[in-house]
């Protein structure tokens, strides 16, 4: 039996950046194409079956050239709450930013980016 239905991914993290503010303990659902379909909160994601967990800050709508955008973000040095609104757009990709300074919400020398 062959199905044309594409799988979705459920991904949990510490934080999710949205234009309205940060979401703690997010659980997002991404389409097969990486489009954000749903946002929920989940305090215990390790207890949810078929859920991936990534430590850090999830950002949906990051520029498709995410590595170059990450370098620019690091060079600017602004808190992510100030820098991300100018960078994020609806047609972007979902990424997770790790190794942050969570007190100031800034990138650090050990920060990394991973495309989801």
Secondary structure layout:
Elements: E1 9-18, E2 21-24, E3 26-30, E4 36-41, E5 51-62, H1 66-76, H2 80-87, E6 93-98, E7 112-115
Parallel strand pairs: 1-5
Antiparallel strand pairs: 1-2, 1-3, 3-4, 5-6, 6-7
Structural features, described:
- This protein has 2 helices and 7 strands, in the order βββββααββ.
- It has 116 residues and is an alpha+beta fold.
- The protein has helices at residues 66-76, 80-87, and strands at 9-18, 21-24, 26-30, 36-41, 51-62, 93-98, 112-115.
- The chain starts with 8 loop residues before the first strand and ends with a strand.
- The chain has one domain: Roll (Urease, subunit C, domain 1), CATH 2.30.40.
Number of domains: 1
Instruction: Detail the poorly predicted runs.
Output: none
Instruction: Specify Rg, calculated over alpha carbons.
Output: 14 Å
Helix content: 10-25%
What characterizes the major β-sheet? 7 strands, mixed
Looking at the structure, the CATH topology is Urease, subunit C, domain 1
Specify the CATH architecture.
Answer: Roll
| Number of distinct helices | 2
How many E-type strands? 7
End-to-end C-alpha gap? 29 Å
Average the pLDDT over all residues and give the rounded result.
92
Estimate the strand proportion.
35-45%
Determine and state the CATH class: Mainly Beta
Kindly name the structural category.
alpha+beta
Oligomer, anyone? single chain
* Pattern of helices and strands: EEEEEHHEE
